[in-house]
Amino acid sequence: MVFLDLWNYIRGYVVIKVEGIRAERFVNICLNREIGIWDFESESGDNKKHWYKMSLSRKDFTKRVRPVAFKSQCRVKVLERRGLVFDVKKYKKRKLIIIGGLSACIAFYILSSLLWSVQVIGPNETYELDAKKIISDMGIKPGVFVKNINSKKIADNIILKQNNITWVGVTIKGTRMYVSLEDGVRNPGIIPRDEPCDIIASKDAIIKSYIVKEGELRVAKGESVLKGQVLVSGLVNSIKEDILPRLVHSQADILARVWYNSTVQVELDIVKNVNTGRQSKDKKLVLFGLVLGNDNGKNKYKNYNVIEIQKYLTLPNGYEVPIGFKEITYLETDKISIALDGDEAVKQAKIKALRDVEEKLSSGCEIIDTNLEIIDNQMGGLQVSVSVECIENIGIKVETVLDQSK
Amino acid sequence: MKHEIAGLPAEFILGLPNISLIGNNKIDIINHRGLKNYSEKKVVISSKIGDLNIEGDKLLIKEISSENIKIEGNISAVSFTNLRHRSD
Asked: pTM, whole model, 2 decimals?
């Protein structure tokens, strides 16, 4: 029925009043002449006079109703004219409405094609701040046209300028830009086979065994080495003094003992914030990044947690419009101190410490020993310390830096 | 009375009114022969076999064309008067 109403509105229709002794005849003649009638009501006036109210299409009314009314001897009076044509006629005189509507549309279009916010999600805050600075240095700030943003260029620029970032994803959704960063250790560049290179220690360790295929060994078995120390040099000195040193591409497997540690504080008394179950909700309108309404409007709790959800209107094609609302939920909390059982706390701390250590381990290492230690500190608390001993290859190849003096 | 003539529904061939009532607030009449009387309380519709009276309250003719009539309102009774005698 909605479609029919809409169709009638577009075509335009007239609501008329039909009065007369033989008003039914008017209707029957209309039916015979195929004049469509709808919303046909029977009404009685103040003086108990009976009349009909009905709707006809604009076209039928202007061209075909007059002879019918004459034939049925009825009086026809127009009560209302409805439809698009009549509305357009009405608003044609009121120019300000048209100007207002048009300027609102234009303003909406322009404002929604601007960038409103840049959100950087990274592994830690320093990376995020650095990336934000790089982006703003490129001239990409809120207020720039979204069309002019080259997301590939931004990603390339961040990767080039930030050493620890290995992957950057830039997505633009409507008026917002999301930048996600992933960190990781970049692979050291592979040194060609015919270029001279050294082998250095990747971490502090104690040398256990070595197999040197090429190059000159600079450490001994059982020697402790520091990170970055040269293990095998690409500069091979000859026994005979009159022969100049030779540069080689070092190759060696250096196995060493490495320790990984982690210490976890055991807390016997924990103060926890527990939800009481009471909550209050507040909704605020967000227009172009501005939150309308006062802060803490509906919060009546002393201790509370806040959950904020911001939603934006999204068009079917995924385009986000900078108009939305913010739903704020205040959850009342209560401070509760929980005394933990000593053994249970130590057990939990052990698990945590082991997990910490496992994250630090490098791939391909062999665990040979695990030590657990519970330390009683003076403050009355406990500490669990885990130390894992591994054997792994610690050598990494770097280009030989020649000392000019030699 | 036969329900089918030459494989087609009888109301179609003979021009009998087809009345469908939905609950007590909507009635749809196909094959009518015009409106005889209409007020808020009673609608009289002429058909081939006689007059169809629809009684009720706040009756409104939602749509009317040469083929069908749709009436809405609180319908309390549907009856026939002035039935024409039929030989079959």
From this structure: 0.44
